[in-house]
Protein 1
Amino acid sequence: MALRARLEPVERAGALRDALEGQRPNARKAAVLIGLFEQEGEATLIFIRRASTLRSHSGEIAFPGGAIDATDESPVRAALREAQEEIGLHPARAEVLGVMQPVFTVVSNFLIMPVVAYLPQGPGELRLEAGEVADLLLLPLRGLADPAIAHTEVWRRDGLARTVYFYDYGASRVWGATARMLNALLGLLETHKS
């Protein structure tokens, strides 16, 4: 409930996206599902490792998600649909808590809406779409929140400096847009603790 209070309500997803889209009118729209559940008493996040055969962001760690289709009635529906297609997560298992500020990816020109959901019964039996997903990673939130595994770098592209976030959890490196979303989520949770 505390996290839900810090997230934007799902009804605001369109307005949040529109505000950023005004600055990025040619950006493609996408949504991802940040799925939280309890595993052995630990809050855990669901990530995927994208297939190495994909054209963009191949082999990278990401949240399940993808492009918003014309048939998707909202970014929330798109995130749930994509999670079902990519990892077999049934939408009925996800209690959507809210959305976070959209994130823009410079390299692939996507405006991504992060949709946060709690899975009270866990993710259930999952099946990976081999053409899109190479691996499933269930990473503990506490481990990801350890400041010792995080760092930032300043990268330049098109004359602009950007802060790039990195989280090195064991052999898994979360970076780029996914790391920015993770950083925002951890920030919301830190706000809750203080």
Protein 2
Amino acid sequence: MKEKLVFDFCDMTIYDNYVVNVMKEGVNLTPEYNAVLVDVAETYYSDKPFIYITHRLNSYSVDPKIYYETSKIKNLKGFAVVSNNYKSKINAQIEQRFYNKPFEIFTDLNKAFEWADDLIKNLDKA
């Protein structure tokens, strides 16, 4: 499965085991935006686990409180940040402290895909 969803604040691509999100430039990501992720989880992953991958190509801010709400999505099993930007990676390290599920930071999108696939595969074994 691969489907593209376009919103006013981001573009999402739906895959079998993960969703890849690219936020638009200048967005201030607050907990209110979580409703979109909840809808995506219910629509595309209602009966299976998935991983959220944010591909940080643009500059935007994240309210760390969003992770409290994101953690409540039961079938969301992990979170990955992909960026080559030093500041973005430092911010992700801070955000990591607010999320209580697997959370990894990558510089390569394909490495994030591998990690997500491995995480899902290992869930199946548990």
Protein 3
Amino acid sequence: MAPSLDGRVFVPHGRAELGEVDAGTAFSYHEADGVVWADYAGGDIVRGHLVGTRDGDTIDFRYVQLNAAGETSSGHCRSTLTELPDGRLRMTETWEWESRPGTGTSTVEESPASA
């Protein structure tokens, strides 16, 4: 099992076709007793929050966010954690909007500065 997410910062690799987060977005994660939560902002995201659970290397969470256009949106995501050769963590994500149509996949990796 990958190490705790607590105190780690993740950044996306590019922007998914129907997504809003991009390389300018940073996710600050916390984890305790199987509960995972994060705050995120940057790029087109003014403010976002996610909360969910972790079972082994799988994270299941819901997210809400406000974009630069003043629009709110929400969705569900399931992520798989892997450890990179340099010790940083990667999440491979499958997500779906719940507030509007659209699904996608994306990858976020731990920022070298937080490793």
Protein 4
Amino acid sequence: MRRKNRWTLASVLAIAGAVSMTGCQTQCGPQLGLLAYPIPVSPYFQDKHEDDYWVHERYERAPILGPIVDGAPPIAMDPPSDDEVMRQLEETHPVEGGIPLFYTVQRNNVSMTKELIADYIDPPRIYPLIGPAQLHHAHYKCTVYFTEVTRRGWPLPYTTVDEDAREVIYIDHDHLHMVGNVNEGLMTDVMAHAH
């Protein structure tokens, strides 16, 4: 009888040891409940976050450039890029989305012109967290030429093509220039206007 109990105890310990070696445990670490299962997320949200970061990194920051040299013409920043113009156009006149087989709009054969319409500099003043600086304004008129194809699929399917579609977008590139070699007269004048 003792032999039978020992044999039973040895078999139970062997089975328990084998089960613990396989990784089949009922509890291992903290329990997450429903959070332990993967939740599907639409790629739309990832694209939106990446797009927002792209726009913030490239177009929503105001750079601070070096001081304007006496006697040299003040040079504005580069004109808007094609990407910036198309993003601005999509923001004001969106065509993304649509309903396939019911209503879609496409822009094909896109070309654009960029024209500097205003370029001027404000007098120096003191900006919080920056110090004395001048605000440089550069206003651009961007005309986008494209072929617009509109497809409607219901109730009667038809397609319209506008060969000479155009949109005008105005983009402002404002940036700051540091004020270099500030003398006493200019500094007191700036401080007097600030108060």
